[in-house]
Please model this.
Amino acid sequence: MRLIVNGQVGDYPEGITVRRLLEALGIEKKPVAVELNRGIVPRQELDQKLLKENDTLEIVTFVGGG
Amino acid sequence: MREDFNRYSRQILFQPIGEEGQERLSRGYALIVGCGAIGTTSASILARAGVGHLRIIDRDFLEESNLQRQDLFDEGDLKEGIPKAVAAEKKLQRINSHLHIEGIAADINPTNIEELAHGAHLILDCTDNFETRFLINDYSLKHRVPWIYAACLGSQGILMDILPGETPCLRCLLETTPPTASLPTCETAGILGPIAKVVGALQAAEAVKALTGHRDTLIRDLISIDLWQGTFQRLNVSGARSHQCPACRLGRYDFLNAKTGVIITSPCGTNSIQIVPTKGEKIGLEDLAKRLEKVGAVSYNPFLLRFRVKSLEMVVFPDGRTIVQGTQDQALAKDLYSKYIGM
Model:
């Protein structure tokens, strides 16, 4: 399945959830904000939200330094 | 034009500001929490822009490794061995002597934030830890004072305006602080100087808009920039306002009421400070050791980790409890904990 993640086109397993995508990217333990097709995915929905072909995601990792 | 506004003539020529905007800036009061790389950048821009009252709070002393990116400071300040807040006040006052500038060397926490932040029109988050950010978030919601989250690490910077009642708050996006010792810090992962400038400049621009009454132009998205990758992201977070948010919807200010965070004690008769996180999470000593071995001498076993930094030793237990040996200064111990263990 084709997804566009942070501007990069990639091939991912059919019908994965946002959580599975974060695991595939190795950032499931980091604090993140996920935008799907220009709308934020609420934190509570990250586990269930299913992705489909050509979805566009922007993922930002929160950082704490200053 | 007012004669004392001559120095701002180019800014006044910028039409959205004009003389009226300059008047508003001169009556503005911004609180800057943290005077590191972002804080020095924002403070310097706002002092030059003529924000009438700046209060800068920082608990740290200036160190040599700060000079790489914190350009309010120089080698002379380092020799004096003074707190960063004091050095910043001195330098900012030289930049603009017409302003009321206060550098306060203190650790902002639930016991003093009401007093330290009282009356501020806007809070600029330039801290190095999430604990303080969640505290600022609570204060901001309780008193309906906007704040600007800004942070950086490595070559990445992040920024978001938090406007009570309008935008999601920090707890809508992140329910609570990331697990103890789970995140890298500037002290363990390093930082590219210019990213702090980019984030600080963005933050200061947002502050100028807010203080001149141009709220409609404030950025309501979450901004993330990576200077090394050359990527710029802007996330529409408007849908993130949570109906169950404990802070902005339910009005529960857990950080302000100190139901979370760390408990700091000075064990009697010892030259040490104990810090106990209240979250009760296990921390991975092996992972922590890997991060710390780049910056100091580390040894660990399944029961504890020892880390030497400067003349002090930190002993970290798997439940996050940490003893900082060689000092009785609570603010210093909390600062080291925040920098090397993370909170």
